Amino acid sequence: QVQLVESGGGLVQPGGSLRLSCAASGSIFSINVMGWYRQAPGKQRELVATITSSGTTNYGESKKERFGISRDNSKNTVYLQMNSLKPEDTAVYYCNMRDFTGYSWRDYWGQGTQVTVSS
After folding, report:
1. CA 117 from chain center: how many Å?
2. How far is CA 83 from CA 80, 86, 96, 108, in A?
3. What is the pLDDT of residues 66-99, one digit of tens each?
């Protein structure tokens, strides 16, 4: 079983920055994709960014301008650097990991961390 533990959320003023972290533990296959999604109240969950185990990144629409995803494979940890935050970035941010067993993909989610952008 794989567990994801997120940290780094909180309250930040508009224009500020936050760095989210997500550490994966358990039996993880080497071919995997880690990433971040977010869900604001009343809205659907949306992609923020993903990064493969080989370092290929993918960003949701307009996310690459202010957000940066990275990972440390030695720690099975993914990071999300968020800059120039806006009130509309307020959401619960969820860590996701998908790994390939050789036959199929498994999908795991973290519990979510709240990010609130407000003055």
Report:
1. 17
2. 10, 9, 21, 26
3. 999 999 999 999 999 999 999 999 999 999 999 9
